[in-house]
Amino acid sequence: MMETIKGFKDDFLWGGATAANQIEGAFDEDGKGLSAADFVEYIPKEQRTKDNHMEVTSDVIKKALAGEYSGRFPKREGIDFYHTYKEDIKLFAEMGFTAFRLSIHWSRIFPNGYDAEPNEAGLKHYDEVFKELRKYNIEPVVTLSHYETPYGLIEKYNGWVGRECIEHFVTYAETVFNRYKGQVKYWITFNEINIINISPFTGGGVLSDLEENPEEAAYQALHHQFVASSLATKKLKEIDPEAQMGCMLARMLSYPNTCHPEDVRKAQVDNQLNLMYTDVHARGEYPNFFKRHLAENNITIQMEDGDLAVLKQYPVDYISFSYYMTLLSSAAPEGEVTAGNLMNSLKNPYLESSDWGWQIDPLGLRTLLNDMWDRYQKPLFIVENGLGAYDKVEEGRIHDSYRIDYLKRHIEQMKEAVKDGVDLMGYLAWGPIDLVSMSTSEMSKRYGFIYVDKDDDGRGTGERIRKDSFDWYKEVIATNGENL
Q: Which residues form the active site (predicted)?
């Protein structure tokens, strides 16, 4: 008799996710070098354009290095997690976290990215962070590169356009694998690797204004990251066979705008192009539809002998992804456009939107979990999902019922997917503590269960305050998702 799946497995991983460049601060302490994130300026909403809020030009970097910029670079400050990690991890433990996703700042370990020897002070810092997590039996989920390309590699090679970055990344990976063997079970190579084709500077430290063919340069950089990911996976298996390597995708599920066959086909293509990245990571080869896409767009990727064999031989163990919204695909787009997770899309009239225009679609999570499980038959891991919203402090409390509602509805659909038979490893809510927004460098776009007293201009005490969602999520974890 077949057994029916009733809910999350007993070892399901519950917790939250962050990135070093959005929380740590201390950008120039203890030998740390500059990274791509340190050049992303805060631009007020009214001055923000598609071209200036994420992409950085060589001119901006020159002015920043010369001290000619009067603006702020909030990711240099973060929320001071570098100094407050013990207090913050204690709060995560109070919620009952069994896992916490963080990234290692590559330029804390190799200040320029290509240094001959690692920075011991940086390695010791993460020794202490992992020690603190172990104290509370919280499993670290560690991203090697989360939008933190060392500036030295940008200056020398224009980031990942340079094939030399592969060797330097593998050296970095090997260093931390050896150092933290037995302390970290779950690794991820590149955060949201597909973002390199949306924002090349964010995803790969690529200054597009220096490239004759920016689109081709981004794909070349992506290929180098794929090879580096596979070689890092090879190293991990040699150094710590018990550990697992995952990839990470910004999953953008696309629906056809209408039932017109051309819209249906456009949605299929958009979904194929989004899943191409996990195709390479999980299946170990470029899919044929992508080869046609490159040819039709006159894009040539330079590969060396052995590259494709490496991709095939060292696929990832699991697939992790972020999920915030769904998109609409149209062969002839007309109508109202809404903002999204680094993307713009036609507005879906059946969905509500967040304060930032991101359309909220809990059922879409169940749909894509089933699609991805059917496609790959590899364990899946939701390592980012959350609601960026304006929070108000009222008599020392933050009543964020809207966040609870958002998360509750997504977890309900996640549970349905598990009942459908999807092998799901865990759920890590994005930004368990308020942090600097990746896309806008704001503090006012808050995700956390923990409020941080700091505004968009960097003012505030930094005090941590539990929101209503803090106690709610604590109950969710304690009941393994049964009490929502």
A: 384
